[in-house]
FAD/NAD(P)-binding domain-containing protein (Hypholoma sublateritium), 579 residues
Amino acid sequence: MLNDGFPSAPSPPKSIHARLGFTNPIHHERHLRVVCIGAGASGLLIAYKLQRSFSDFELVCYEKNPDLGGTWYENRYPGCACDVPAHTYTWSFEPNPSWSSVYAGSEEIYEYFKRFSEKYDLGKYCKFGHEVTCATWNPTSSKWEIIISNGSETIHDSCDVLFNAAGLLNNWKLPDIDGLRDYKGKLLHTASWDQNVDLIEKHVGLIGNGSSGIQVLPAISSQASKITTFIRHPTWVSPAQAQEQHIYSEDERRVFESDPEALLSYRKALETGFSGLWPVFIADSDTQKTTFDGMTTMMRDKLRNEKLEELVIPSWGVGCKRITPGVGYLEALASDKVEVAWGDIAKINERGPVGFDGMEYPVDVLICATGFDVSYRPRFPIIGTSGQSLGDVWADVPEAYFGIAAHGFPNYFMIGGPNSPVGNGPVLVALEAQADYALKMIDRLQTENIRSFEPKLEAVRDFSEHRDRYMTGTVWDIDCGSWYRRNGKVVATWTGSTLHYLEAIEQPRFDDWDFKYAGNRFAYFGNGFSQTELDPEADWAFYLRNKDDSPYMSRNKRRIATTHTNSSTQITQTTVKVL
Ligand code: NAP
């Protein structure tokens, strides 16, 4: 059977071809049902892009929270804000002239994504308070079968394509310290903040100096009477691109609002500066060395405390752990109100943490800024072709294809999966590129008689081997306690800059994928008509024009055209402009 049960479109006049089963013109779209796990930034992006480019589809974004926004809905701890300039934290096509400051707060970021959803009417795809609990690939129907819980009932759904946009920094974890449950004071995790908690005149304990802890400390120091912060390792704290916090004046915001070109220039300058940071991550680069020296001086100037300088300023490369601007952090750390308890916590008793030297730290409130489960293992079973769950397959190290797909898991895409460029330069544009890649694949699924596709094992293995070799030359290769590494492998960052990633995944490498067809792979050639010929309003001679404005066929010429450069030759040096 040529179409193998796939639906048919209205056909041209009956002919011998129709009787032979060739009913549709080429590239006839089959109806697709898509499920997306999550309605955070990535889930909304999928909804937006699918809606923009596709017609014959259904989409449901199942979101466990009662509202959209994902991490920006959940993370409401004091001081929670963008840790990169907010104007680089928008979709490339959706600027936000109204950011209040360079490092805008989490509520503003949540509002940005809410406005994005409202503007494009994406809410109609979202089911809130619906948590996906299991997804299983059915090889017979070539569909994902999904189980969802809405708290009161279990719902069954199925789809042709499954997106996992659940986010990585999502499954927050309390520290694994003896006696934590015995603690009788108020216990908080940054990602599960109790808005009713009152810190005024309280002695607060703060565990952790990652990006979250660094934002919390200065934000609570005006309320608490005393803060004891428990730190195990040093970390780099410095505004990237030397962008200190700045509140935009009304005049500045008016210009952003009224002059889109001015805003675009500002955004481009920030984004270009961000991309220019890439050489920092190359272990032996001159940029790493000068950044190391510059940041050391900057941190010393803010700390002005020999003991703290010794403890807090790392000896390992800048960027090994995520760099955090740390607005007011070092100043707060050095203030009289803050006590630094250095080293591991031996246990926690009913009053608070106890150090290995037996020193007790009784606190009224204990804040755990202790991060997330960053294993990339989904928190519910996603069961692929082998019958194994992705969590089991990735028990040791997550081995993905370019951050977006996994072998053995057909028609399955991740946004921000392993080895996505989360710390390589601008992030949101990379998520857009991932969504675009997936949609290019889905376009083929919909129009080329394809049942399913998955990355080949050999492609995943080759990528992992390349990754492991490449990463030895980066600052991430040493064990500085960063969540970018898992069991000795760098699994969270890409093997190059964000711009490198955009080029790497601009076009799908179909040779890395296995396709399964619904019968004859060319059945979609159909009745010999193009869709254009069946559309009386279409320009049937669309290829005729007065000059050749077609895209260039070589990457080099396309790059030159896209990036508006005057360079007419292939670039071979590795020098990069650093702004
Ligand atoms: P994190 O970077 O994993 O930091 C966790 C902190 O908790 C570390 O300082 C860690 O110490 C400490 N810790 C964990 N277990 C501990 C234990 N048993 N005893 C003592 N200390 C312990 O987590 P995060 O700060 O939540 O940040 C995670 C990521 O979220 C960031 O890298 C960033 O990508 C993202 N984030 C972004 C923003 C933003 O503004 N956009 C804000 C916050 C977070 P060790 O270092 O010694 O292990």
